[in-house]
Design goal:
This protein is an alpha/beta fold. The chain is 40% helix and 15% strand. The chain has one domain: Undecaprenyl pyrophosphate synthetase, CATH 3.40.1180. The structure holds 3-methylbut-3-enyl trihydrogen diphosphate (IPE) (2 copies) and magnesium ion (MG).
Length: 242
Amino acid sequence: MILNKPDLDVSGLKIPQHVAIIMDGNGRWAKKRLLPRQAGHRAGVENLRRVIDACIEFGIEVLTIYAFSTENWGRPESEVRGLMRIFARVLDQEVYELHDQGVRIYHLGDLNGIDKNLQDKVHRAMELTRNNERLLLNVAFNYGGRAEILHAIRQLLADGVSPEELNEDVFGRYLFTSGLPDPDLVIRTSGEKRISNFLIWQAAYAEFYQTPIYWPDFDREALYDALLAYTGRDRRYGLLKD
Ligand code: IPE
Ligand code: IPE
Ligand code: MG
């Protein structure tokens, strides 16, 4: 029997233009099922597919996902290797379907320092999908907010930008997210309540939403719940409500 997707009406909701997700809890999801951590990462990637579909359905324009942090290199070598294998497979197998759906893939982070073969796959995916406009999918991969800020400062200095010329807009243009709107909503799954070096400049005024659900189980309805919570938020940006 094919189950219909339950009706989730977003017409009364405020839809954030840019949602960023810290996809956390793959390891614990697997452990709970007595499976190896790699099975959790595989389930996480399968779930990403569903969440991308839901973002398109709900009218979100930009989705940024935290896939691999600069700190994640410190995990056991076998886990890092397993994750790299998954990314390579996704870039081989899923990109065409995403392209057909009108998804533009963009990478945030430092591609130097990852396998050359994987670098080429990332470049090809970005090139193939560059004119798509339905959903912009930013993949933060070998990404760290502090590394990003240092990278920006190095470039600013190399370009000879003077202290007088520097302001928040100019600085923003040197970040990996140059030209993108700041995230409106940052979601973290798995119950952790920290930012873990993710978009630390850009998320200055993002709304933060956390849920105990492990990432592989964070489905369309869970995303809907996050949007519902976001709708109820009062974004004041330091000002007073009249
Ligand atoms: C998130 O899941 C995926 C990555 C960091 C690559 P984790 O692997 O951090 O899962 P937990 O936090 O150990 O459950
Ligand atoms: C953040 O999750 C990084 C990604 C989701 C890619 P971690 O599991 O690495 O973060 P910590 O260690 O709990 O802060
Ligand atoms: Mg984790």
